[in-house]
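Pasting two entries for a bug report.
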Amino acid sequence: MGWGRVVEARHLRYAVALAEHHHFGRAAGELGIAQPPLSKQIADLEREVGARLFDRTRQGVFPTAAGEAFLARARRALDEIAAATVDAGRAARGETGRLRLGFIASALLDPLPGVLNRFRRERPDVRLELHEMATSRSGSALVGGELDVALTLGPPRGAGAEHLVSVPIGRDHVIAVVSTAHPYAGQQTVTADQLRQQTLIVSAGEDEPAVAAGLRTLLGADSPALGGATVARDVHTIIGLAASGVGVGLGPSRMRAVPRPGVRFCDVTPRTPLPDLVLSFAGRDRSPVLRAFLDTVRENCPDVGAALNDRLRHHT
């Protein structure tokens, strides 16, 4: 049934209320209007529809056959309007929609698990699309609109990066991991000189040039220990090889978040910083889902909130 140009949602509510109460006065009272305007609106509706929708009798007001047909669709239309209102409100609060997140693997050590667990718990109807990718790839995907937010090692660089809002959410430095049988297992700290005498295990992931630069700073650019190091795919492999007694693993301090029997972690001196873990998103993006995700980051990473708010103010 197609509605005429002057049939509005209020006309549907008026007709449904009248059908439920069978009386103009009682229906008007429920609707919060006077009886004469209700009678006029129903008459206008019948003229627009081109059929008598209600029989006015001494016993009350009852739908005609045309009225019953009209009311069946009217009720469904009102249900759809109510549902649309609810859906719009949920979308505006970031409770529905889609979030595309790119991340480097080490972000899964900390803080991404806590953030994602909380976000999924509080907004189960948001569709999360998660993509593990290198910093260079996720940065360009963010600029190109393929991602909504990215976690990278250092801020994204290149064309368009100036339009991104970036904030550090995790600082890191080099630590060592050894098996419990290794001579260093009882030490709180190992030195660069000690490391130069060991077989080393380092990562060769796409994001590791920055880590490699930190290790060259620590051990020397031409260090034989680095030249002969065992190359691992990621931090989990570094820890696994160290547990197997292959050598001393070197990686980010976030490795401590990986529970693994048979290994010990040691600080490294001198302390060698690594690039920050950085959260970035498009400054022009005002989507409620992104806003909700940033709120979750603020709640789960309290130290990030002030810096994030400052970046947003500066970008605006």
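Entry 2 (this is the one that rendered wrong in the viewer):
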Amino acid sequence: MAKKNNSLTSLALQKFKKNFWGVFSLLIIICIGLLSIGAYIVAPDHSENANQMHLSIHSKTPGFSVDMLTIPSGINSNQNWWSKQFFGEHNTSSEIPISSYRVEQDVLHYTAYASDGLVGEQKEIALSRFPNSDYKPFINHRTFRFGTDKYGRDYLSRILIGSRISFFIGFVAVFISLFVGLIMGSLAGYYGGKIDALIMWIINITWSIPTLLLVIAITLALGKGFWQVFIAVGLTMWVEVARVVRGQMISAKEMQYVTAARALGYNDYRIITKHILPNIFGPLIVISAANFAAAILIESGLSFLGIGAQPPMASWGAMIKDHYNYIILGKPYLALIPGFCIMLLVMAFMLVGNALRDALDVKT
């Protein structure tokens, strides 16, 4: 007869599996995470940061299609497969949207695409510019599923690659907040006295400063950039973790198993890390899920203000900033699509956090 596992972990997992919205949200998070990792594999635009601009086809509606002529530069980028799949291709070729073309006497004549019923410029290029004078592989019919942005870049590719920042900032920010918060909260709660008073003074000072203002100050101090934003957001989210750890530590250090550990002669480090922290990790998991959502919103706000991820790097917040005025210009989807993506990811993390809270609640 098989034994039934009745450990607290297995019971919490069983309760979590019964929560439909929690499991559904977790699947959404996993899917977005996989898409962000393999963004360059599935994105139509494989160039670095999906930054291939075509100004002649800017702000086109979803489903727009056009013939694209690629003119090879003949320059070898010497980029390995790993770098192409995870960081994009160093595209040295030129892409030109065209409306028509013909070949006469080893010369390719083409008409550049022009919108609003206008006739584009007539240009020509020698077939010798193409390998073996074969131009056909370099003319492709391309469809932009989400249309193009105001610079003529493929919007679907920008959305997919922009998910990287919004997704991974949650992991980095939560890791930093847990690292700092666990240390500060454990010291304050376990030792108490002057150490507790000092740490609580630091916590209260940090807590009194508006989060966005503190992030802006740290970002300006560290400089604008990708990792600077991650560090800045993480350094502003440790306060809540520290307060929860401190409260849990104060109550846990009076438990009998801690008294027994002291009687056995274990040092404070072992008691805190091996005995107390594993027993208070339930509330921390819930806080971490909420901090994921908060980090995504803070990063989006910073990118919207222009001090987050810098162009040409794709970011959902920066995409809203670039296109929010299109809401009144008849193309609101340019701002609504990244806004919906932010809302979906934040809601998924919040629902997972609620499901974890219910699953880890020993009273139920």
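Dev reply: Rendering is fixed now. As a check, the viewer should reflect this: The mean pLDDT is 87.
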